[in-house]
Amino acid sequence: MTDSLPSVAFLGAGSMGGAILRGLVASGLDVDGGVFATNRSAQKAAELAALPGVTSIALEDEPDGNARAASEARIVLVGVKPAMVPDLLREIGSALRDDAIVVSLAAGVTLDTFQSILGSETAVLRSMPNTPARIGKGVTGLARGAAASDEDVRLVRRLFETVGTVIEVPEERIDALSAISGSGPAYVFLLVEELTRAALAQGFAEADARAMAEGTFIGATALLDATGEDPAELRRQVTSPKGTTERAIAVLQDARLSELFRTATDAAIARAKELAAGA
């Protein structure tokens, strides 16, 4: 495992970029050459400036700050909104080091878009993290571009391992991964919302309803993590024959829950392809 990283720049250290930056700092992993971060406002930049080893740049004070940060870093993470990516790449292209590794955090922006602007010889990877990265429990998908070496992938993988699990996939699988792990936290939160509503409908006070629903999901996933058992086996352990849980599970299965999830993830994948096409 890589015990240190070369210099890293987060161009657009917003919600996701900022989460990964904080995870990197919290991990204590040595970063040779330091960490650089850019934000449009001085207020947001100030929030990151307090982190040890971070040079935080406010673009409203330093308009060419993205180019400066990119020139200082071996690993350059592009965390701006997808529509802003092409302009940012044109802005930093001439400032990149010869050995730069450019990593996309932007959903729906293809490797071809990066290579067409930066050149086919630039090492580029496309990443798809999810929001639990904020607490070091993320799942990140990584797809390498043609010019990215095994060493490039190893360094970027180590960076994302500071905020959770990393799965390497070919780029054509990134949209499918996004539909599962990228969007997945929203599915879980929706289930928590609905279980809370079910508790309210049974007459529980809101505080108690939330405590039951949220605590149940937190406890169940912690049990899954702690035991390493198959979720189907853990479900069977709760489901006594001819008991109350079995009756409830039957209702969910009769509602074709598995088909519903497949349809939902297919819809997410279709929308990702529309975004990539500029729709």
Automatic annotation (TrEMBL):
Pathway(s): Amino-acid biosynthesis; L-proline biosynthesis; L-proline from L-glutamate 5-semialdehyde: step 1/1
Keywords in alphabetical order: Amino-acid biosynthesis, Cytoplasm, NADP, Oxidoreductase, Proline biosynthesis
PROSITE patterns assigned to the protein according to its UniProt record, in alphabetical order: P5CR
GO molecular function: pyrroline-5-carboxylate reductase activity
Record-listed E.C. numbers: 1.5.1.2
Chain positions recorded as NADPH binding sites: 66
Domain Pyrroline-5-carboxylate reductase catalytic N-terminal: 8-108
Pfam families membership: F420_oxidored, P5CR_dimer
Family annotation (InterPro entries): 6-PGluconate_DH-like_C_sf, NAD(P)-bd_dom_sf, P5C_Rdtase_cat_N, P5CR-like_CS, P5CR_dimer, Pyrroline-COOH_reductase
Record family assignment: Belongs to the pyrroline-5-carboxylate reductase family.
Protein name, per record: Pyrroline-5-carboxylate reductase
Highest classification ranks of the organism: Bacteria, Bacillati, Actinomycetota, Actinomycetes, Micrococcales
